[in-house]
Inverse folding.
């Protein structure tokens, strides 16, 4: 058994993390503008306390009851799942004690400055405002990688934070293969598809909201254990499996943003609601990796939400909500419009195919930084060159180019690849679901998502970090993580 | 100067208190139902941390730099306001170190059980479900009073927590005089007033909401430093002077609840927004007492919001919002309806006169408990007898009787008297405001509350705990806290 003292310390830390998540949620969704400074300090106070507790003598002593702190060997007297948990608890602890409190608070202070600079730089479309901060953030990330330790190159130490066990040595060839397969498919699609869908008129946002609430409920999201709100940048967070919150953005020019947002964030939210409350505070009660998390959002957003059966079911509901705007557009035309593929400048607006080109570009820039030591001042040039090479578009300025994403200003390097990994896994999982759940497409058409949601919970959610991304894909699909399912899906959908 | 280490520790604690307040706000306004247990644990974790920090060796050492910890004497080298702050910081610290961590967590656990029992007891209208918990809560409060220390009787130790410096020896004769003066006034009013206002029809809640937002903004509430929401039980809270939040309840049967709620909670909220951010974390940045806080809500709710000038200004706006329902009712009739006085069973629904009878009853029950040691099982009998004696009404059951208020289940004894003290002070302050602000009634009629709001901020808010209730009333009005202003107001308003 995991000793009670350790369980209590872990639960205590997890509740502090819940509090920290509430502070962020409230900041995005509720907080009045002038409270930013006070909120930063509140968040800092909680983060410091988490780090202090995690690296305390108390925690060390409790962990030592179950684990040899020198070797990491788990003492006997625990079952296999407890053993898994303890291995991860030990690994997390080793990482935490590598980072001095001073490093953690300096980093956190730097990030708040850097985010501020990024916002200003983006507003003024001037990379030079952000550059000195980005330089510092990169240096701190190098330092972090060194403190945490890595085998091959520093970047792997960062990647491992988001996608445990994944390395550049695996990612680079996978991404290369994928890119080379996507380019010819993209070329054909762009030539043969009809024009983009032009929606005219205003889609009443309160009617959109109702449609999304209904959809979320059909996805089996439990509103007694969570809620949906609106925010400028949609996100999902959780304070505990009994309190999972997602946000979407309503856009009066199109209902598609709200619907895909509900599916995407709803997928994340179902993962969090599906985690085991009994294991709360331990790795078994946590999501496996960012990639697996993204697989859960993408499986709903893309595999379900861009499919014909889905729109056969949902389009009539949407037409009923907006008869004057949509009755003139046929299901077939609408479905093709939803799946319009076209190279563009902005990652978050990209279609399901070109999206990954945006990721490859970011991955390559991150490699240039951490592997090749390319100076920060050269990055906008590389960015623009890669957009031209991969997508054939030229960013007219930094705001629509290298300044478009928040991630780097937050110190997140090694995060972007998980978006593509998640998509690849989502298609592997979905292919398996189609095999295992008889009549799944009929369910989707009928808006009955119960069996599918339960399948995801049983196969993926309930294991938490007890299974890595690779283990999940192997156990569920009998495969390695690969691009095959995704490519087959694209070919069947767009080229046949 | 107050040493930096101490300032930082105080700020740290104040930010944790802000976090704790956010956890409560979110629980009332946002949180999904099933998250109650997780939220209780989150709150507990933060409360324990606050207590631990406040009673730490670190805090003791920092305090010792400015204060002799044996005698409480403040060392030289501070100015008069810093001296005031340090006296209070020392007093708060002495109280904190009197309470062992085990006492604090036992008390907190008992309260969560007791609140649960109270909810069930009220729902079933069965005092016996709540009685055993109430007994324990009373015992814990006795223990607390003993730990904190008191001069005359244990109840004074509890009262001092909410209204520093106030004692039963002062309160009892004040309340007695007030009750004896109110009884004959009540008798005359009830005989001579016209019938209650009967509002028919439904008042659209979104239109009510707009009226209330406009009113709050006219009160000079700053929405960049706070927000208004809805909740079942209206309240105001703050996480920092830059983040003050109030809630109101919308009732489709009457717009009066929302308007009086906006004025009442808005008054509390303006007090919090008026506190000094420079002194955040110190007593100078905190509200003086619960009584003073209540004076700020009552001055807006009653002195302003039940006056004829106020309704001369607001009633046309209300008629414009609900023409079909209100155009048939004259201003005079409406104003008299708003001020309808009548004995009733429920404190929170009471008019401005009989309200205090409800307080006297609770004060007397608290005296019976702590002074006379009356057993808990006898309390409903005393409650019903006192309602008969003071108000001539007979509670038909415990839910409409002794179980109506949440306070005792939360362990709050000595809290109720501050409601009446606050009202008395509000009339003393308002009389002075009428003398000092030329044309105040014209301002109120015109809905221009800026000068009044600024007067309150300058005279009261900005001093924080730097002035006690008694000092504020003396400095502003040149008087002791007394019933005279309130009684004069009632006689002028209702009997002339």
């Amino acid at each position: 058994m995991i000793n009670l003292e350790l369980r209590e310390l872990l639960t205590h830390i997890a509740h502090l993390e819940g509090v920290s998540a509430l502070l962020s949620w409230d900041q995005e969704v509720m907080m009045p503008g002038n409270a930013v400074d006070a909120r930063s300090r509140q968040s800092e106070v909680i983060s410091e306390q988490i780090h202090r507790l995690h690296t305390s003598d108390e925690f060390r002593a409790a962990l030592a009851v179950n684990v040899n702190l020198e070797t990491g060997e788990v003492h006997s007297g625990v079952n296999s799942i407890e053993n898994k948990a303890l291995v991860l608890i030990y690994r997390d602890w080793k990482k935490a004690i590598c980072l001095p409190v001073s490093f953690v608070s300096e980093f956190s202070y730097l990030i708040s400055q850097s985010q501020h600079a990024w916002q200003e730089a983006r507003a003024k479309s001037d990379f030079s405002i952000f550059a000195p901060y980005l330089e510092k953030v990169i240096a701190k990330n190098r330092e972090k990688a060194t403190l945490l330790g890595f085998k091959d190159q520093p970047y792997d130490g960062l990647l491992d934070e988001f996608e445990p066990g994944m390395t550049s040595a695996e990612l680079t060839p996978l991404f290369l293969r994928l890119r080379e397969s996507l380019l010819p498919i993209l070329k054909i699609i762009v030539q043969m598809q009809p024009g983009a869908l032009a929606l005219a008129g205003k889609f009443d946002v309160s009617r959109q909201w109702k449609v999304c609430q209904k959809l979320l409920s059909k996805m089996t999201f439990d509103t007694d254990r969570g809620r949906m709100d609106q925010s400028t940048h949609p996100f999902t967070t959780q304070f505990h499996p009994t309190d999972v919150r997602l946000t979407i953005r309503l856009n009066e020019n199109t209902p598609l943003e709200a619907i895909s947002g509900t599916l995407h964030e709803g997928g994340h939210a179902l993962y969090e609601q599906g985690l085991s409350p009994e294991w709360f505070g331990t790795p078994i009660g946590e999501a496996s990796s960012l990639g697996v998390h993204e697989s859960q959002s993408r499986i709903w957003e893309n595999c379900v939400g861009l499919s014909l059966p889905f729109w056969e079911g949902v389009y009539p509901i949407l037409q009923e909500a907006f008869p004057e705007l949509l009755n003139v557009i046929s299901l077939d035309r609408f479905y093709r419009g939803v799946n319009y593929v076209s190279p563009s400048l902005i990652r978050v607006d990209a279609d399901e195919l070109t999206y990954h080109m945006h990721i490859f570009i970011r991955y390559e820039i991150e490699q240039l930084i951490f592997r090749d030591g390319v100076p920060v001042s050269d990055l906008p040039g590389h960015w623009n060159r890669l957009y031209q090479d991969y997508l054939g578009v030229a960013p007219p300025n930094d705001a629509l180019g290298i300044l478009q994403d928040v991630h780097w200003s937050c110190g997140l390097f090694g995060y972007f690849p998980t978006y593509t990994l998640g998509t690849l896994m989502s298609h592997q999982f979905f292919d398996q679901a189609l095999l295992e759940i008889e009549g799944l497409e009929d369910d989707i058409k009928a808006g009955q998502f119960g069996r599918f949601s339960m399948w995801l919970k049983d196969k993926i959610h309930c294991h938490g970090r007890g299974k890595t991304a690779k283990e999940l894909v192997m156990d569920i699909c009998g495969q390695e993580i690969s691009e095959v399912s995704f490519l087959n899906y694209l070919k069947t959908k767009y080229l046949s």
